Amino acid sequence: MITRRLSGTWGIISFTGMTIVIVGVLVLLDLPPVIRWCGSLLAGVLLLLRIYSVIRGTAKRSQRFSAFEHNTLGQPVTEAFLPPIQYDLDLSSDESVVALHAPVLRVMSSLGSLFRGGTWSFLGKGKTTDAENGLVLTQKRLLFLMIGPETLRRYCSSSHAARLLDALPGDAFAKRLMLWQAGASDVHDALAGLVAEQNLEQVLQTHFSFSIPLTEIRSVGYSLERHTVQLHLAELSLRYCLKSAEELGSLVKELRDLGVKIE
After folding, report:
1. Could you state, in chain order, the average pLDDT of each consecutive group of 10 residues for the chain (263 residues)?
2. Which residues are CB-contacts of 161 (< 8 A; sequence separation ≥ 6)?
3. Would you put residue 16 in left (φ > 0), alpha (ψ -120 to 50) or beta?
4. Cβ-proximal residues to 62 (8 Å cutoff; 6+ apart), any chain
């Protein structure tokens, strides 16, 4: 299994070898001293930046969530998970699960969303605002959460896709996208198992999540052809893709029954 630490070690070793080769070539070409010194200095600075990036990229996450690791060979990244929007909404004793839908995938809602959110990284530190892949509907909220590899292994014994993606090197966002494409049923089964075993308070404590109160949703638009639902909020709009028109239709009906305006 390729870990972030192993991928970072490989990156330092390979970059060190390249630095030695560059300096050796500069010496063998017998170039003027100023060129040799400047070239060597530049190669040394780049090596130090790579080492610094690896140190940051292999550090422990500040948030203890089950998640795929960004362990691209030579370029590990420690991701921090940020919700695209967050409302304060305490759990009430009469709040329960009405329905669940998984997997869901955030997609572009407008041209402006190209420049807002997403996943980005710099020198081994990354941030992502689109890690959610599961949706739980209650009488008061839409609860989005991230079903990671640990949850998949615990609640879905046949999750071959998750085990493979967890072991292989690669970009964490790309792994989540591949899980959407190749492990849809696994994500759904894992979410169902999680909700059956844990109450909402436990889910909020153990998984990356954010809530959108139903009262904050101005209206909901949807496209059965594209399997997308768009939540219109005061601050922004969020669009999600579901796996089938049937599941989308079910979600729209559930929201309508709870008093949410459907366009």
Report:
1. 89 90 84 84 90 93 88 92 89 90 85 66 91 95 94 84 87 91 91 93 93 94 93 91 94 93 90
2. 178, 179, 182, 183, 186
3. alpha
4. 80
* Residue pair 222/229 in contact by the 8 Å Cβ criterion: yes
Residue 13 and residue 73 in contact, taking contact as beta carbons nearer than 8 Å = no
Q: What is the DSSP string of 217-231?
A: --EEEEETTTTEEEE
Q: What is the residue extent of each domain of the chain?
A: 4-58, 147-210, 214-258
- Residue 80: strand, helix, or coil: strand
For residue 125 the two structure tokens come to 């530190």
DSSP assignment string, 180-249: HHH-HHHHHHHHHHHHHHS-HHHHHHHS-EEEEEGGG--EEEEETTTTEEEEE-SS-EEEEE-S-HHHHH
CA distance 207 to 192: 14
> Residue 171: CB partners within 8 Å, gap ≥ 6?
70, 72
Alpha-carbon 182 to chain mean position: 16
Pair of tokens at residue 119: 């996943």
Can you state the percent helix, strand and coil of the chain, rounding each to 5? 45, 20, 35
